[in-house]
Amino acid sequence: MSKIIFVGGKGGVGKTTCASSLAWKYSKKYKVLLVSTDPAHSTRDLFDIPFKKDEDFYVYSENLDILEIDGEKESNIYISKIKKQCCEMLSPVILCEVEKQLDTASISPGAYESAIFEKMSRLILKNTEYDYIIFDTAPTGHTLRLITFPTSMNTWMESLIKKRKKILMLKNMKFNKKNKFSHDSVLNILESRHSWISDISKVLMDPARVSFNFVMNAEKLSFLETKRAVKTLDEYGINIDKIIINRVLPDSSDPFWQGRKDKEKVFIDLISEEFREKNLTPIPYFLEENTGILETIGNLLKQQRDVASN
Ligand SMILES: Nc1ncnc2c1ncn2[C@@H]1O[C@H](COP(=O)(O)OP(=O)(O)OP(=O)(O)O)[C@@H](O)[C@H]1O
Ligand SMILES: [Mg+2]
Fold first, then answer.
1. How many structural domains comprise the chain?
2. What residues line ligand 1, using a CB cutoff of 6 Å?
């Protein structure tokens, strides 16, 4: 099964750059899929791949593919799947009303996130040809919701299953029937969904398969946001592999830049203290662009640890 690496962090800190650098580096030896879950994709831009209408999948090289998840497309697939299930269970009169409700739901922000989660989960659970699947994610809040989704979904699913069983029990009592839970299509769907969400939850908490890399800059807001996010992932038992301190300034003879460097040092000290038990990886501020920067950062990140050799 593929190893999964999530790259997350505050907006603009260098997530896409670091995720792409890792993907680039790993693709020298392994088969890699780089996935962007950020609605504002820029992964393809970093590799200078021209946009193709209605395309979300790009082959960059023999070992590196790029997928920019199209939330709208996935949302439509997701809603069609639910409609199909409703068709099998509901009478035509009710179905018409339910379809109207589903069409409204399909344009809600929640549906978009659920659809991205569906796609992400399918990639993680499916036995793909990739040694590594690297997720370049949207800024922290969005990504944390995505990753902690199974836990909240599971609780909700369990309460729905309980309610459905209660209804079935009352129905059985009324018609004096024996336990016929297994023939109820609604319950079957809920239970299979529950088991699927439990599977994804287990994988996300498996450090042998999944790791999370936080990218941050040595400044106040990035530090505070990362501190909160790391605490959340620790609470959910999700393995944090690296905390990347990106764009570390070089020493300078210019008083302005040296002033900034001194301020940065204060935060580097705070970060080193706060995350002393984590694997901290500083990345310098580079002048190169695109593939130059990918190669250099990829080398620095890979030097630390080769997850595939675990
Ligand atoms: N180590 C670095 N040295 C120099 N420039 C960098 C470095 N890392 C990232 N950059 C530049 O910083 C900018 C933001 O980087 P990037 O797009 O990777 O951030 P992001 O966290 O993915 O942003 P968003 O939250 O918008 O998705 C880009 O112009 C990128 O080239
Ligand atoms: Mg990005």
1. 1
2. 11-17, 38, 42, 139, 246-247, 283, 285-286
Q: For residue 11, what are the domain limits?
A: 3-73+109-150+184-309
CATH of the domain at 260: 3.40.50.300
Q: How far is the CA of 127 from the centre of ligand 1 (A)?
A: 32
**Residue 244 counted as domain residue:** yes
pLDDT confidence of residue 306: 47
Let me know if residue 159 belongs to a domain.
no
Domain assignment present for residue 139? The answer is yes
Partners of 242 in beta bridges: 213
Confidence tier at 98 by pLDDT (50, 70, 90): confident
Task: Find tokens 């962007």 and name the residue.
Answer: 36
Query: What's the pLDDT band for 180 if we cut at 50, 70, 90?
Result: low
Residue 92 lies in a domain: no
The per-residue pLDDT for 39 is 76
d(CA 187, CA 181): 7
pLDDT band at 83 (very low <50, low <70, confident <90, very high): confident
Ligand 1 atom nearest 283 alpha carbon? 1
Q: Average the pLDDT over 53-67 and give the result.
A: 91
Give the atom of ligand 1 at the shortest distance from the alpha carbon of 285.
Answer: 3
